[in-house]
What does this fold into?
Amino acid sequence: MEWIAKWLKPTVDFGDVPPVYVKNFKLAGTVRRASLFITALGVYEAKLNGRRVGDFILAPGWTAYRKRLQYQEYDVTQLLQEQNELCVTVGKGWYRSRLTSIDRERQLELMKSPPGLLAQLALTYADGSRDILVTDESWCVREGPVRFSELYDGEIYDGNREEEAAECRGTESFEGPFETLIPQEGEEIRRQERIAAARLIRTPKGETVLDFGQEIAGYVAVTVKARKGERVDLSFAEVLDKEGNFYTENYRTAQCRYHYICREGLQTYEPHLTFWGFRYIRVNQFPGGGDMVQPECFTAVVLQSRMNRTGYLSCSDPLLNRFFENVIWGQKGNFIDVPTDCPQRDERLGWTGDAQVFVRAACLNYDAEKFFAKWLADMKAEQKENGSVGLIIPDVLWSVNPSAAWGDAATICPWQVYLAYGNVRILEQQYSCMCGWVDYITGATKDRYLWTGGEHCGDWLGLDAPAGSYRGSSREDFIASAFYAYSTSLVIKAGHVLGRDVSSYEALYGKILETFRSTYPVYHTQTECVLAAFFGLAQDCQAAADQLAEMIMDCGIQLMTGFVGTPYLLHVLSDYGYTELAYTLLLRREYPSWLYPVTKGATTVWEHWDGIRENGDFWSADMNSFNHYAYGSVTDWVYTVAAGIRIREEYPGYEKVTIAPVPDSRLEWLEAIVDTRHGQIRSRWQRREGGWRYEITVPVEGEIVIHGKPRTVGPGSYLFYSPLK
Ligand code: BGC
It folds into this structure.
């Protein structure tokens, strides 16, 4: 792509007001095709002759801007007329909003950038001649109806400015980024669903609150009849407190407001330059006062990166079904161009640990290959020269040391994406980044063949954390060394797939294993047992799993694990003969468990096992998101063990499959469907007349294992029976 256009900015400072760039032009004849190439330092919304260009909300998306900035191409042929007006609003978006509450220095650099726009419109006329219209100083810029727009703090919109043509100001070109421009790589963020307000609530404090019945990420469309200048003012929240009042403390410094100044008459407005994570809205101001608020005035609009849904879980337990739904909603709300920790408070960042924890479930639920490929390319771009990978990608924290189980997203995510879709390209793209991460650890450790002396997040939010700490009590060097081994093993596997020489990593792996075994002969926590067994590091993995089972029993059949141990916990139990115990944990309704939040009305997955306590208190205001997908990772166990849909590493992408369902008599039935690149896999079991009945469909050759007995099958649908036990 050859850029002739210039980066434009207004000649005057627009402050918080997103500028609207305007170009009027006349066509020289009939146009056969018109393509608009466009990007911005911020997020843009383009309109040609009053009609929106494309459906990408929050374009150009979020990338490691210093290295990569996407541009988009839209076919705008149908939007053209003889005389045209192209208007582009540029909001702050991820580029220029404040991001993180932790260390803003790195982001400050970007925040100081102008609200730049770069666009060129390529026209091909019916007679074959061509013309090109580019951003240059002939464009003007004016203030538009959006008065303020920022990711954490929300939006202010003045509907009266839609009609009032504001004063046109000049534009000037500046040295904007060209070397970093790349064509669109990720999935577009689109409006996916609309949800009507389910309930109007007057809270004990007398506030007017609407409940959409589902926590989402997106925005609210408002339809209202008003007098000019009347106002709609909304606040957003995930939960009500135990008294039933609107609760926003857990958004921390994120203001999450939406303020709309009305025109005269009936009007509808949808903000497009920001988004919120919420289930409830509080109506602070409304034309005619709170009594005029009707649920019909508000519609929640769900935003998500466009991905095809591929996985479905259902079973006979309504609570577990609701949990499955919550996991899907967790993915919807946190797959907005970047896999984020949460969509609401002053974070919404691409935390690497969270992504590696959830990647397996994510790739079962949705076709997320393109989504991850783009994010991993950003990771590679952000990787430091010494191989270190940041805690978040895009890395707005830069200064912070890397952490085990977070940086390991560099090896785990590409490997899982490869297994899910069978496409070697992700390994080709990421292999150097994978090796770089392992090499970083090799260079950074204090003690050879382990990773000691680093600064880590530990078993984040583990229940065995000492009072006042977020870090579980598993030893951090233990976790770091275990992941060092695991990442090295994945580099070796990826290298084999790619036909690379991995002999040095094989030698390294042998040494790590040996050193790990001699340094850590005993395990102190559930998570330590889980890692030792799941990564195959224990001298005796069965003994590690036995110890894990014992520890679970000893504390009243409950898990104590955090972000690091939880994803593998049930796998270790079922791999080593404790499937019934794994089901017990999955089906447990009391705190701590996956279903406890569901008993408390959760519609997404909580960050904390006890985000809301039994007595209705919040565990804290500081770190208490109600839409954090990490613990939703357990659904990968449901797909792959309970329903038994297994990926075979030698046949990635389900080219050949193994289906080995494991029923449990506390459920009547369970079903999983996965739409793979080779067709649909379905596995269902149901209790019938003293036994189990299995219905299994495979689109490819495979092995079906029922009650321990394997059979080789071709593509087709099959029925099997087995005794109850
Ligand atoms: C995020 C987490 C993240 C963690 C690591 C939190 O603030 O929300 O999900 O992984 O920090 O320190």
Remarks:
- The first strand starts at residue 7 and ends at 10.
- The chain has a mean pLDDT of 95.
- Residues 341-342, 347, 351, 353-354, 457, 460, 628 surround beta-D-glucopyranose (CB under 6 Å).
